[in-house]
Design a protein that fits this description.
By secondary structure, the protein is of the alpha/beta class. It folds into 2 domains: 195 residues, NAD(P)-binding Rossmann-like Domain (Rossmann fold, 3-Layer(aba) Sandwich), CATH 3.40.50.720; 218 residues, Rossmann fold (3-Layer(aba) Sandwich), CATH 3.40.50.720. It is built from 17 helices and 14 strands. Strands 3-2-1-4-5-6-7-8 form an 8-stranded mixed beta sheet, with helices on both faces. Helix 9 packs parallel to helix 12. The longest helix has 32 residues. The structure holds uridine-5'-diphosphate-xylopyranose (UDX).
Length: 434
C-alpha cells in the first residue's frame, strides 16, 4: 500500500485517484478549485462519468480517498505524486504547460521526504519533461530526491473507470530505473503489458496513439466521401475492413467526426511540435481538415435535403462529443448547431445529460431551443440530425417522431439507426454513404 497524492481532479486525475484507492492505496486528490473539492468531499462528482460516483463514494467512506486544496496536507505522507492537470492548447496550437509547471513547483516546495513524481498529463516531447524535472530539482529542499516518471494516460471519457482497470498497456518513461520499476509495480494487479522507456518516447507515444486513432476516423470519413460517389455502403465496407486483424474493427465509424478534449488538441499539438522542429506535416493537416469538413458536409447535406435551411426547423439529437459523457468540448454537435443557426434554421436540441454543459458554452441564439426530451425536440421539425451516438436514440419511438414532424428527413450522423427500418416508416434516411 502506497500513500499517493494526485494533483488535479479532472477526468484523468479523479479517475486515477479513485481507482488507485480501490486497489488499496491511500490517496489524496488536490485541486485549486475549492468548489470542486467541496463537492467531492460531499460525495458528488463535478462531471458525468459512469461508475465514478460510486467508486469515489465507496473509497471516500472507507477512508482511502480524500480531497484537499492544500498541497502540504496531501504531500505529508505521499510516496508518489501523480500530476494530472490540464495542458490546454495555446492559440498557436502548442500545449500550455503552465499548470504542469506550477504543480511541479508546489509539489517540490511541499515535499519533506523522497518521493516519485509521475507525470500523467499529456505533455509534448522536446524539453518539457526535462523542464519539469529541473523545476522539481530547483525547488526541493536540500537532500530530498524526487525522480520524474512520465506515464501517459490512455483512458476514454465515458468508460474511464473500465479503461483504468483494464488498460491495454502502461507506458512508463523514466531516467531513473528504480523509480520506473516502482511505478510499474502499481500496474501489476492490472496485468497489462508494461513498456519501460525514456521520458521523450513515453510522451511521444501518447501523441502518436491519439494521432493514429484520429487518422483512422478521418480515413474512414474520407473513404465514405468516395464510397458515397461510387454507391458503396460505408458500414459494409468498414465491417469488411475491420475483420482484417491488421486493420481492426474499432474507430471505423464514419460520421460527424471526432471531438472531445484529446484528439483535436493532441493532433493540433503534434503538428505544432513538428513545425517547431522544421517539419510541416501535410498528413496531420489532412486529418484535421477532413474532420472539420465532416461538420460542414453535415450542414450541406441538410441544406440540400431541405431545399435551403432558412426558416427550417432542425432537431439535433446529442450535444456531447460522444455518448456517456456530458463533455461538450470540441463537440461536432455544437459547431453544426452554430452553422445551422447562422444559416437561418431553427434548432431544437436534446441530450440525455449534456444540456447543462452545452448551455454554459454554446452562444445563445434566438433560434436555438433546448428540449427536455427527444420527442419535444423533434416536434414540428423538418429534419432530425443524430449528432451523438447515444444508444437510447436507437430505441426511440421513431413512428411517433414521424407523425410529429412536418418534414421527414433523418440525417444519421453517427450511423446509429437501421436505415431499412427508418425508411420503411416513411422517413428520407440520410447518412454518410449508406
Ligand atoms: C480518446 C482516446 O480514445 C483515449 O485513448 C485518450 O486517452 C483520450 O482521447 P476520448 O476523447 O475520451 O478518448 O473518446 P473516444 O472514444 O476515443 O472518441 C473520440 C471521438 O472520436 C468522439 O467524438 C467519437 O464520437 C469519435 N469517433 C470515434 C468517431 O467519429 N468514429 C469512430 O469510429 C470512433
Amino acid at each position: 500500500m502506497k500513500h499517493i497524492a494526485v494533483i488535479g481532479v479532472g477526468y484523468v486525475g479523479l479517475t486515477t485517484a479513485a481507482c488507485l484507492a480501490e486497489l488499496g492505496h491511500h490517496v489524496v486528490g488536490v485541486d485549486m478549485d475549492e468548489g470542486k473539492i467541496s463537492m467531492l468531499r460531499q460525495g458528488r462528482i463535478p462531471f458525468s462519468e459512469p461508475e465514478l460516483p460510486e467508486l469515489v463514494e465507496r473509497n471516500h467512506q472507507a477512508g482511502r480517498l480524500d480531497f484537499t486544496t492544500a498541497y502540504p496536507e496531501a504531500m505529508q505522507q505521499a510516496d508518489m505524486v501523480f500530476i494530472c492537470v490540464g495542458t490546454p492548447p495555446t492559440p498557436s496550437g502548442h500545449a500550455d504547460m503552465s499548470q504542469v509547471e506550477e504543480a511541479a513547483r508546489q509539489v517540490a516546495l511541499s515535499a519533506r521526504h523522497p518521493l516519485i513524481v509521475i507525470l500523467k498529463s499529456t505533455t509534448p516531447p522536446g524539453g518539457n519533461a526535462e523542464r519539469v524535472a529541473a523545476i522539481l530539482a530547483s525547488h526541493l529542499p536540500l537532500g530530498i530526491n524526487a525522480p520524474l516518471v512520465v506515464n501517459p494516460e490512455f483512458l476514454r471519457e465515458g468508460s474511464a473507470v473500465y479503461d483504468t482497470f483494464h488498460p491495454d498497456r502502461a507506458v512508463i518513461g523514466a531516467w531513473d530505473a528504480s523509480a520506473a520499476e516502482e511505478v510499474a509495480a502499481l500496474y501489476a494487479p492490472l496485468r497489462c503489458p508494461v513498456l519501460l522507456t525514456d521520458p521523450v518516447s513515453a510522451q511521444f507515444t501518447k501523441y502518436a496513439s491519439n494521432a493514429f486513432l484520429a487518422t483512422k476516423i478521418s480515413f474512414i470519413n474520407e473513404i465514405s466521401r468516395i464510397a458515397e460517389r461510387v454507391g458503396a455502403n460505408i458500414h459494409a465496407v468498414a465491417q469488411g475492413m475491420g475483420f482484417d486483424d491488421r486493420i481492426g474493427a474499432e474507430f471505423l465509424e464514419a460520421g460527424l467526426g471526432y471531438g472531445g478534449s484529446c484528439f483535436p488538441k493532441d493532433v493540433l499539438a503534434l503538428s505544432a511540435i513538428a513545425e517547431q522542429h522544421g517539419y510541416y506535416s501535410q498528413f496531420l493537416h489532412a486529418v484535421m481538415d477532413i474532420n472539420a469538413g465532416q461538420r460542414s458536409l453535415t450542414v450541406a447535406k441538410l441544406d440540400e435535403a431541405l431545399g435551403g435551411l432558412h426558416g427550417k426547423r432542425v432537431c439535433v439529437l446529442g450535444l456531447a462529443f460522444k455518448s456517456h459523457t456530458d463533455d461538450v468540448r470540441e463537440s461536432p454537435a455544437l459547431s453544426v448547431i452554430s452553422m445551422l443557426c447562422q444559416q437561418g434554421a431553427y434548432v431544437q436540441a436534446h441530450d440525455p445529460v449534456a444540456m447543462p454543459t452545452a448551455q454554459k458554452v454554446q452562444p445563445s441564439h434566438d433560434t436555438l431551443k433546448y428540449c427536455p426530451d427527444a420527442y419535444t425536440a423533434a416536434l414540428g421539425c423538418h429534419a432530425v440530425l443524430i449528432a451523438t451516438n447515444w444508444p437510447e436514440f436507437r430505441s426511440l419511438d421513431w413512428s411517433r417522431i414521424h407523425t410529429s414532424m412536418p418534414g421527414k428527413v433523418v440525417l444519421d450522423g453517427r450511423g446509429l439507426l437501421s436505415p431499412d427500418e427508418i425508411r420503411a416508416m416513411g422517413f428520407e434516411y440520410l447518412a454518410f454513404a449508406n
